[in-house]
Amino acid sequence: MSRNILFIILISCILISTTGYSQFRNWDRFELGGNYIMAMGNFSGVSTVTDQYGNFAGDTTVKKRGITSSVGYGAFIGTCIPFKKLGHESLWAVSLGFNANMITWSNVNEVYNASGSLVPNSMPGVGPASATTMQFSLPFGIEWKVGTDAIKTQRKHLGASFGVGMMPIMNQTTMTGVQSYDEHGSGFNFGFNPYFKAEASFYTRICWKLRMTASYGKLNYMFENNNVGSLTDGPFRIQGVMSITGTLIVMPFSGHWTEYSWFNTYDTYNPWDRLH
Fold it and tell me: pTM above 0.70?
């Protein structure tokens, strides 16, 4: 069911984007960017207990809240479709995008030492283990825009956007260098989380942006039903609760912007406006 919903959303985004390109000359609002992402979540599962010499002494259940991934990297493509003019330099728009990110979770097999503290696994022949998540998402929502990229102008050098929306997400997580022992470990996990974003735009012969996006909601990253060889002693789960993404964006076709369109006709007399 989740896969069908994701497929329908993907097709809808493509159709909306195609309509937007033909009706609003949306090709020159195309965005291309690089992501820096950090995810936060909770860990629950079975962990090893070691004695004072670092040897196996037993098992225990463990819950860790507020774990964070390493800073991950990814790519973004997207656009927006204006639908409501608000003033000379502001409007409402529908935003559409696609993210592909890679996130790493370190020390997923921490152990309890003799003093009762969680520490990286250093047992002989075992060592620490990590997990890598490939994440794909389709953020779509509504945003308020003002300034340079709102009205596609070359004479305004600053702009801003604020938006909210929903983000269908698909995760695939595997333990690094280890064959998964359960279908959920290397299988797909789906989510549908809300997000909000804020961005600043700068025009310097071409438009580029700095964007910050926060997404909230429970999201399964990994679920292993069994121990993974000698690396773990039992089942465990990584469940996300939040992610923060910083994106550096360039609008490659913004060098051809003009201010003549249905949402902005107030200053087409501008001598610096290159109408074509």
Answer: yes
